[in-house]
Amino acid sequence: MWGCPVKNAIEDIINESIRTKQDLLKTELENIEKAVRKIIDCIGNGGKLIIFGNGGSAADSQHIAAEFVGRFKLERKALPALALTTNTSTLTALSNDYGYDACFKRQVESLGNKGDVALAISTSGNARNVIEAVKTAKEKSISTIALTGKDGGRLKGLCEMSIVVKSQDTARIQEAHILIGHIIAGIVELSLGQ
Description:
Layout: H1 4-27, H2 29-44, E1 49-52, H3 56-69, E2 81-83, H4 88-98, H5 105-111, E3 117-122, H6 128-139, E4 143-149, H7 153-158, E5 161-165, H8 170-192
Helix pairs in contact: 1-8, 2-8, 3-8, 5-6
């Protein structure tokens, strides 16, 4: 029943994931480096990393924040990061009272400070609530980094810097996003985690 077609499908998916990451290495290495340096400077100067996105990107936001506040590989001091996707009371109140497009914007307005970095995650680059939060971050002189896919969408031109996973497949984009999150967490930890 589970003969060659399933095995072939598994191989195809793994190979596609590998190709996506190889393409990322060819096209986005400098952008990832710039993002890492920006986050190191931010945290080194007393700022924090603010992360947000929808669906799988919400999960990635929480995952990345946990790597900073807990640990990635080293026992070290906690690093300041927060995901705007975790407080269901805030998310539902803001969505109910102001509309879903404001659920991250209002949190950036409340919690963000000049010198922080906002990491906006959207596989399409077109999530309206993520875009609205980036606009608010820019108004508050918060640095903005887009982590997107496909052609980068509207976020690519809106953020100070963008890392674009040039794939049309959401699953492959998300796999690359968490790789990038791990890269950022690991290098920031090595730089600042004493």
